[in-house]
Design goal:
Arc Repressor Mutant, subunit A
C-alpha cells in the first residue's frame, strides 16, 4: 500500500461463499482489515454508519436494498468512504447506474487476487477502478481511429477538458470549483455544455467518455 495506515473494509454480498473468498484474498495483505460483512444493502449501509470504513465492496443485486441504492446512501452519508461494486454483472446499464450513484469503481468477480489488491491501493489513492473486462465492455464498438490516436472526436475548450477529468475522478462541483478557483455555478455551466457537446445526459456519460479517451487525457492532465 502507498500508506502504512490500515485500510478498513466492509464486504457486502448476499452469498456467504463469495464473501469468504473475497475476504481470504484481501487478507493476504497485512495492511487490510475486514471490519464488517453484510448480506443485504441495508446491512451494508448500517455497517458503514457504525464502522466508517475506508472502502465498501458492494454486489449490485442484494435483498432489501440493492447495491446501487446502497451506494447512493453511503456516498451521501459518508463522502470519505470509497464504494466499489464487485459483481458478476458486466452490464452497461448497471455500470451507468453505479457511476451515477457515485461509485468509485466497478469490478468483475472474475478478477485475480493481484487485481483486487491493486484496486484497493488505487482507490485509496483517489482513482476510480475498473476491471479489464469492464473496461473492454465500456469500449465496446467505440474503439475508433481517433481514440487509437489519442485524440478527441469533439472539440472541447481547455477548461472543459479540465472539468471533465475532475468529474471522472469523482469530484463534486464544489470540489472542482475549489481546485480550479472558479465558482460552483461556473462548473455547473461547463458541465451542461459538456453534456450537450458529448451527447450524454448524466455524470455517468461524462465519466464513460473520459475513460474511453484516457490515452488523450493521460497526455493532457489537469494542471491546476
Amino acid at each position: 500500500m502507498t500508506s502504512p495506515k490500515t485500510v478498513r473494509i466492509v464486504l457486502a454480498d448476499d452469498h456467504e461463499l463469495v464473501r469468504v473468498g473475497v475476504r481470504r484474498l484481501l487478507l493476504t495483505d497485512s495492511n487490510i482489515e475486514i471490519v464488517g460483512e453484510a448480506s443485504t444493502g441495508d446491512e451494508a449501509v448500517y455497517l458503514t454508519e457504525q464502522e466508517r470504513p475506508d472502502i465498501v465492496f458492494l454486489d449490485v443485486l442484494m435483498p432489501q436494498l440493492n447495491g446501487i441504492d446502497a451506494a447512493k446512501k453511503i456516498k451521501g452519508d459518508s463522502g470519505k468512504t470509497r464504494v466499489v461494486m464487485l459483481t458478476n454483472f458486466e452490464d452497461q446499464y448497471y455500470l451507468d447506474q453505479a457511476l451515477q450513484s457515485g461509485a468509485d469503481g466497478y469490478l468483475s468477480k472474475e478478477i485475480s487476487r493481484r487485481e483486487l489488491l491493486d484496486a484497493v491501493e488505487q482507490v485509496m489513492d483517489g482513482e476510480r477502478v475498473f476491471s479489464k473486462a469492464v473496461l473492454a465492455m465500456m469500449q465496446g464498438k467505440t474503439t475508433t481511429q481517433s481514440q487509437a490516436a489519442g485524440t478527441l472526436p469533439v472539440g472541447l475548450t481547455k477548461r472543459e477538458e479540465e472539468i471533465l477529468q475532475l468529474v471522472a475522478q469523482g469530484l463534486t462541483s464544489q470540489e472542482i470549483a475549489n481546485k480550479l478557483f472558479i465558482s460552483p455555478r461556473t462548473v455547473e455551466t461547463h458541465r451542461a455544455h459538456l453534456m450537450e457537446k458529448l451527447g450524454v445526459n448524466n455524470t455517468a456519460g461524462l465519466v464513460r467518455f473520459a475513460l474511453l479517451h484516457s490515452a488523450y487525457f493521460s497526455r493532457n492532465p489537469v494542471s491546476a
